[in-house]
Amino acid sequence: MPTHRPIVFxxxxxxxIGLGHLARSSRIASSLRGPSRILLVGSPLxxxxxxxxxxxxxxxxxxxxxxxxxxxxxxxRASALIVDGYExxxxxxxxxxxxxxxxxxxxxxxxxxVGADLLLEPNLGSVADxxxxxxxxxxxxxxxxxxxAPEIALARARQRPLAAxxxxxxxxxxxxxxxxxxxxxxxxxxxxxxxxxxxVLVGPLNPRQDASIELSKRIGAEAxxxxxxxxxxxxxxxxxxxxxxxxxSELACLGVPNLAVAIHPKQVEHQNRYAELGLIVSLxxxxxxxxxxxxxxxxxxxxxxxxxxxxxxxxxxxxDGLGAERVAGEIVRMTxxx
Length: 338
Known about the structure:
Elements: E1 7-10, H1 20-31, E2 37-41, H2 50-53, E3 58-61, H3 66-75, E4 80-84, H4 88-93, E5 102-106, E6 118-121, E7 138-141, H5 150-155, E8 168-172, H6 181-190, E9 197-202, H7 209-218, E10 222-225, H8 231-236, E11 239-243, H9 246-253, E12 258-262, H10 265-276, E13 281-285, H11 291-302, H12 305-318, H13 323-335
Parallel strand pairs: 1-2, 1-4, 2-3, 4-5, 5-6, 6-7, 8-9, 8-11, 9-10, 11-12, 12-13
């Protein structure tokens, strides 16, 4: 039997940056069979993150610097280092240095030089053009590499037909909602009380959980705290209000018409591309998306079956939910012989 060298992941999850980087890494880790999977984090994982941490055999807190990350990976004799994060990718792969392991970057753009052997840009409308990587390195971009949990793809078979008029709305703003969009969306829906059933997902890292629950109750909405998966809620709803990020890929895979804001500058280009491809209804930059404007858009989309049908068709055509398996296969092939 071959002895598998471990694969090391480096990412973080906290109220400031959310859960997205950890979620993507955990989906790759869950799809890898054989080698041990060790997660390096810059600070202890917060409460409620056990479902994502469970994908790894070990979680270690390390100094967040790139040198310490590589030092630990080398001490573990890792076959690969997989890094995900807005800043940490550049910190680790700014220079092209052979460390005796395969280097994998999970990135969100913009295209530039990244000293990795495999670069993943899993946002749905992304392309490989413009990236420079290590010699003989590869770039994998776009919807085929969207990193989703396997349960998402399996749930597609249970998709409900679209209602002529949308009656159920899902509000989902990620694990921490740093932009406070949960409150804004609930405020928008308060003016439509009685016309929709509303379910609000409150993330496990959201520091305003109690306030979000109370606001939801005031408009007669159901609040669900710390949901480990989205598929049951996505299958329940007719349309969603969300913040762009990994949630957009999950909703797209399940064919949910999605009205989304961008909450990070890196998301703006992706938001524009998603709208061009007919994958979302763009609500623009979060600071400019007022509750009355959101309310008007909800009213328009809820009665426009043709628009919601086009959104579903575009989304389910482009996203099959198998990206994590594809990426795991590439990593296994890269590390064979190391």
